[in-house]
Amino acid sequence: MRVRQNKINTCAIACFQSVMQFYSIKYCDSSLPRVKEAKGSSLYDLKIAFNKENVKADAFFSLNKTLPSDVNLPIILLLGNLNKTGHFVVLYKVEKSYIIWLDPAIGELVHLSKEVLKTLWTGVYLQIKV
Prior knowledge:
Oligomer: single chain
Mean pLDDT: 91
């Protein structure tokens, strides 16, 4: 589950690998999200990668930056600014006052308050259903 990205623009690949490891799903390297120059991969690239492995993935946007109470974890969150290059992380746990996610930039689980999450998260997420 703790996958570290190997380049600055490969956070989507690391998130894909982390989720697939979580579910113990083997995958083909040809399914990995495409990396597009300096920008990396898009949410659409991630969705296509999961679909290639017969894993359902749907993108959502939360205007008020809250998750539905029935969301299936883990999910992939898009951090940053919607108009610029963002950063993907894998959200594993939501508690009353904090969350736990994998940040592929460091390859470690990070505990954050929900208030900090709201300042970093764009409201965009990818829900994965196995």
